[in-house]
Specification:
This protein is an alpha+beta fold and 156 residues long. Helices cover 22% and strands 30% of the residues. The protein has three helices and eight strands; from the N terminus they run H-E-E-E-E-E-E-E-E-H-H. Strands 1, 2, 3, 4, 5, 6, 7 and 8 form an eight-stranded antiparallel β-sheet that branches. A hairpin with a 5-residue loop joins strand 7 and strand 8. The longest helix has 13 residues. It is globular, with a radius of gyration of 16 Å.
Length: 156
């Protein structure tokens, strides 16, 4: 008997995950890419998503942006019904979506060993605010981080 494997598009899988979140389930989503460095390491860590009762500047969310793709990024501004997002590892902010397209809020980062880190401790919130002020020099800090601390498996 031949086994057939079907590969589902990411957007289709994420829509199913969002349905579970809307039903009140906590969902673990592996993160890809480096856009959330140094707080979330893509390819190694996952985020635990919950249904957002409310969202605020500083929250890490799963959002449908530009009408074409999902991202896990941090909210940097909310104006009325418009949300501006940016990955912590990015150096420009050009992602926008309506508030209704914020589909889930990340509460925990989960390391490969299963250790969970809450994203909103006072210390992490202070560090993320400080990190946002480093935008002009973030490119060089991230380069050093990728070349040294990331290879040593050191997490912030």
């Amino acid at each position: 008997m031949e086994v057939v494997h079907k590969v589902l598009p990411n957007n289709e899988i994420l829509r199913d995950l969002i349905q579970l979140v809307n039903e009140g389930q906590r969902v673990v989503l592996p993160v890809k890419g480096n856009s959330m460095l140094p707080f979330i390491i893509g390819g190694r860590e996952s985020v635990e998503l919950v249904k957002p009762e409310t969202v605020a500047v500083g929250d890490v969310v799963l959002a449908w942006i530009n009408g074409c793709r999902f991202v896990v990024h941090r909210i940097i501004r909310i104006n009325d019904d418009q949300v501006q997002l940016m990955g912590d590892g990015n150096i420009t902010a050009d992602e926008y979506c309506p508030l209704s397209d914020v589909k889930a809020r990340a509460e925990y980062v989960i390391a490969p060993n299963g250790k969970r880190r809450y994203l909103y401790t006072p210390q992490r919130l202070r560090f993320s605010r400080f990190w946002s002020r480093l935008l002009p020099v973030r490119r060089w800090i991230l380069a050093i981080y990728r070349r040294s601390l990331l290879k040593l498996n050191i997490h912030i």
